[in-house]
Amino acid sequence: EIKAASINHLDLWVRKGLPIAKYPITLGCDAAGIVRETGKRVLLSPSTSCGACEFCSSGDKPLCLKYQVYGEHRDGTDAELICVPAENAIPIPDTLSFEEAAAAPLVFLTAWRMMFTRGRLKPSEDVLLWSGGAGVGTICLQFAKMAGARVIATASSDAKCAKLKDLGADVVLNHAREDVAARVREITAKRGVDLVVDYVGKDTWARSLQCARRGGRIVTCGATSGHDASMDLRQIFYRQLEIIGCTMGNNKELQDALRPLFDGRVKPVIDRILPLREAASAHALLESRQTCGKLILRP
Ligand code: ZN
């Protein structure tokens, strides 16, 4: 029984039409609620996989061929009830509200794989986080601080910059007003950052390459501004950059990602809570890029 669901960019892409999605479909891959039969408070693991193949059992490998995501390949969470395999219902502590729990699964999982499994973030490294106010960004930021990295985060307004500072960003840049590449050079004494996290895509990609240090890494898990980014390949080979693709994550990564949520070290960031019937306005809000953190739907 769903008590809260949350919105992700994935929902917007599926609504607009994805070749791999199954239609007609109920949107949404994030939820928390109660198991009707037992009364247990749980959150939903956003995907299913075979659990046995080489991709399921190793951290850094691409995902299982049988990987399916709620709200993309099968009916999702923007609903009052959903039927899921028992292993997808993960018990949550009483200290966590349903809204907080629903805000977590996809962004925690994605952020964990981006920062650690794929991004290989180490303590004392510098990270540039574009649009840190995005749902996944607010968690990347907190994971990076937990790991002991220095975080430079950008946002499009002073209000969002202030929120990112509160979340622990060491430096915040207003990317609507400041020359991010120049400021990053200045902050890192011309070196550039070790890891760039870019899910914005077209608008930021060329600058992401400029901001990475020689031999630096750029990790991408999405392209909210467009996927047909262009780049100067000389930047990649002369400066020996690594471009790393990343999506979702496996069960082990979800367990690792949720531990700091359950023990309170990392907090979900919620922009606002809306009734489920206002799902359409929630989509419009996310598209407007005015939000900071997650939008929650309550059935
Ligand atoms: Zn598998």
Fold and architecture overview:
There is one protein chain. By secondary structure, this protein is α/β, with parallel strands linked by helices. The chain has eleven helices and 14 strands. It has helices spanning 9-16, 54-57, 98-103, 105-118, 135-146, 158-166, 180-187, 205-211, 233-238, 251-262, 279-287, and strands at 2-6, 30-34, 41-44, 47-48, 68-69, 89-91, 126-129, 150-155, 171-174, 193-197, 212-220, 242-245, 270-275, 294-298. The protein has a six-stranded mixed sheet. A six-stranded parallel sheet has the order 9-8-7-10-11-12, sandwiched between helices. Helix 9 links the parallel strand 11 (212-220) and strand 12 (242-245). The mean pLDDT is 95. Zinc ion (ZN) binds at residues 49-50, 52-53, 55-56, 64, 66.
Compact summary:
With 299 residues, the chain is α/β, with parallel strands linked by helices. The chain has helices spanning 9-16, 54-57, 98-103, 105-118, 135-146, 158-166, 180-187, 205-211, 233-238, 251-262, 279-287, and strands at residues 2-6, 30-34, 41-44, 47-48, 68-69, 89-91, 126-129, 150-155, 171-174, 193-197, 212-220, 242-245, 270-275, 294-298. Helix content is 32%, strand content 21%.
Low-confidence segments, given as residue ranges, are none
Secondary structure tally: strands: 14
Q: Could you tell me the strand content as a percent range?
A: 15-25%
How many H/I helices? 11
Largest sheet: 6 strands, mixed
Name the shape in a single word: globular
What is the share of helical residues? 25-40%
Q: What integer value in Å does the Rg equal?
A: 19 Å
In which order are the strands of the major sheet placed?
6-3-2-1-14-13
Mean pLDDT: 95
- N-to-C SSE string, H for helix and E for strand: EHEEEHEEHHEHEHEHEHEHEHEHE
Structural class, please? alpha/beta
Give the distance, in angstroms, between the N- and C-terminal Cα atoms. 10 Å
Q: Give the cofactors and ligands.
A: zinc ion
